[in-house]
Automatic annotation (TrEMBL):
It comes from the Eukaryota. Residues 5-126 form the Bulb-type lectin domain. Residues 285-366 form the Apple domain. CDD domains: B_lectin, PAN_AP_plant. The keyword Repeat does not apply. Keywords: Disulfide bond, Glycoprotein, Membrane, Phosphoprotein, Receptor, Signal, Transmembrane, Transmembrane helix. The chain crosses the membrane at residues 382-405. Residues 537-548 have a biased composition (Polar residues). Pfam families: B_lectin, PAN_2, S_locus_glycop. Residues 525-559 are annotated as: Disordered. One of its GO terms (biological process) is recognition of pollen. This is Uncharacterized protein. PANTHER family: BULB-TYPE LECTIN DOMAIN-CONTAINING PROTEIN (PTHR32444), S-LOCUS GLYCOPROTEIN FAMILY PROTEIN (PTHR32444:SF252).
Length: 559
């Protein structure tokens, strides 16, 4: 059974089956075995996140090989870890101690020793000053510019062994401070300098994953990768050598800055860029020198730089011109239009093109090279404009051609439709089409005297009466009498009367109508239309009789 503690004093301790829990149960600290070994480590981990996510290990380089370790205070108030033999395997080595010390685990993940007789803010030791491989909110990386001493994140040896690995993440205090990743003494990657908004070289993407930043998603219950680096080849420190820039979208990615040329052209052309580039023309070291503006850049290595937080950009340019070794300048802070000054001396190292979050830098050039660079830039700009115009014209031509082809297809389709319509009209001459004026004229403008009854299919006109009297041809208007064949007209009238018969089950369905139209089969004699007026003797004691009102709703199709 695990016993949870909230704090320990100099007279208390934490054993293998005990843990220290933060006030809001966010973090937990205690002894854990890692990997497939039985090695014990005193760790801090997220309490309610699965799988167990460790954020700090006290004895990362000195594991305990038995089940009876203890975390306690020394008599002087210094936190230590002892093994079963009482040998100290880890010590906080706190410079300050207190006999009234209290050990607490805060909800930030910070393990602190407080002086019990003082206020809460009097912390005599804290784990945040000694980070492992994880940087938590509230934890700081710092460097003493005088002594050069700094703290750092150091990778694990592997995923199950917290022993110090090869990679370190820390602040470089030479020149303007910048975050770097090193392997031993070798500089691998720079995150760039802080410009008030972001580090100018923080990558977006995934490749080596030497440095990763995660955010916990409580909704998905998983760690989400927010940021990592290096992102690509251009993030490798000094890939292109001195006085060059790296653009991952180019092939090859390295090119000399304007006004510079490869130091050893043959070697450079063999895809070995380590020797970098040198000036084509030396600086005059006077006011005739000028500056070429580069935008969207990860700023160069600041280990050989000078900065002033209060200087304007115009003053920064003048300051650079005063020193012949000055090679470039830039704003220190990009907020509110920019402020501060940063100046680089001698060679420019590790600059790259950033697509999303780079900034401006001004590279110093001799007057003649500045003119050449401007001309080259104008040529590139002109070439870009011409390419853009050409692309636009090509695009418009392509669109026009597509529209032309589609219009031809539509015209051809319309023509074919007209031809088919004419053919259909010729083929279906037995079903003539009458316009509205013709029908209105034939019914005397739908005169009431011509209506014999009304039902589900509208007015039934004189056709039924003329049919019974064998005078069907009188139904045909004189104005169209010469344009139709009598037999076809009689067939259409007969079909119309069949479709308005009183009983719905006597009426032909649409498939039968289609056969009637397309064939010469003998049609049945139509029966009385629906709602035909019956002649009934009047009676005062009998209600008036009507035919049964039966209606049919079928699929609506043209008759």
């Amino acid at each position: 059974m695990i016993i949870a503690l909230t704090s320990i004093t100099p007279h208390e301790s934490i054993h293998y089956n005990e843990t220290l829990v933060s006030a809001a149960a966010t973090f937990e600290a205690g002894f854990l075995t890692l990997g497939n070994t039985q090695n014990l480590y005193f760790c801090i981990w997220y309490m309610n996140i699965s799988p167990t996510t460790i954020v700090w290990v006290a004895n990362r380089d000195t594991p305990i090989y038995n089940k009876t370790p203890v975390f306690k205070f020394t008599d002087g108030g210094n936190p230590v870890i002892l093994d079963a033999s009482g040998i100290t395997v880890w010590s906080s080595n706190a410079s300050k101690t207190s006999v009234e010390a209290v050990l607490l685990l805060l909800d930030t993940g910070n393990l602190v020793v407080r002086d019990g007789s003082s206020t809460e803010s009097n912390i005599v030791w804290q784990s945040f000053d000694y980070p492992g491989d994880t940087l938590l909110p509230g934890m700081t990386l710092h460097v003493n510019r005088d002594s050069g001493v700094y703290n750092s994140l150091i990778s694990w040896k592997n995923s199950s062994d917290p022993e110090r690995g090869d990679f370190a993440y820390h602040l470089d205090g030479h020149g303007f401070p910048q975050l770097v990743i090193t392997k031993g003494s070798t500089l691998l990657y720079r995150l760039g300098s802080w410009n008030g908004v972001f580090f100018s070289g923080i990558p977006v993407g995934t490749l080596y994953r030497t440095m990763q930043r995660f955010l916990w998603s409580s909704q998905r219950e998983t760690w989400q990768l927010f940021q990592d680096g290096p992102a690509d080849r251009c993030d490798n420190y000094g890939l292109c050598g001195a006085n060059s820039d790296c653009n991952i979208n180019n092939d090859p990615p390295c090119e000399c800055l304007a006004g510079f040329t490869p130091k050893f052209p043959a070697i450079w052309d063999s895809i070995d860029w380590n020797d970098g580039c040198v000036r084509k023309v030396n600086l005059a070291c006077d006011d005739s020198d000028g500056f070429l503006n580069y935008t969207g850049m990860k700023l160069p290595d600041t280990s050989s730089s000078w900065f002033d937080k209060n200087m304007s950009l115009q003053e920064c340019e003048k300051q650079c011109l005063k020193n012949c070794n000055c090679s470039a300048y830039s704003n220190l802070d990009i907020r509110d239009g920019g402020s501060g000054c940063m100046i680089w001396f001698n060679d420019i190292m590790d600059m790259r093109k950033e697509s999303s979050q780079g900034q401006e830098i001004y590279i110093r050039l001799a007057a003649s090279e500045l003119s050449n660079a401007s001309n080259n830039a104008n040529k590139k700009r002109l070439a870009g404009i011409l390419v853009g115009i050409g692309t636009f014209i090509l695009g418009m031509t392509t669109v026009g051609y597509v529209i032309y082809i589609r219009r031809r297809k539509l015209l051809k389709s319309d023509k074919d439709t007209i031809v088919k319509k004419e053919d259909n009209e010729k083929e279906n001459i037995e079903l003539p089409i009458f316009d509205f004026p013709t029908i209105a004229n034939a019914t005397d403008n739908f005169s009431q005297c011509n209506i014999l009854g009304e039902g589900g299919y509208g007015p039934v006109y004189k056709a039924w009466k003329l049919w019974n009297e064998d005078r069907q041809l009188e139904f045909i208007d004189d104005s169209i009498g010469d344009s139709i064949i009598d037999v076809e007209a009689l067939r259409c009238i007969q079909m119309g009367l069949l479709c308005v018969q009183e009983r719905p089950d006597d009426r032909p369905d649409m498939s039968s109508v289609a056969l009637m139209l397309n064939g010469e089969r003998v049609l049945p004699n139509p029966k009385q239309p629906g709602f035909y007026p019956h002649q009934l003797a009047p009676s005062s004691n009998k209600s008036e009789q009507f035919s049964e009102n039966e209606m049919e709703i079928s699929l609506l199709e043209p008759r």
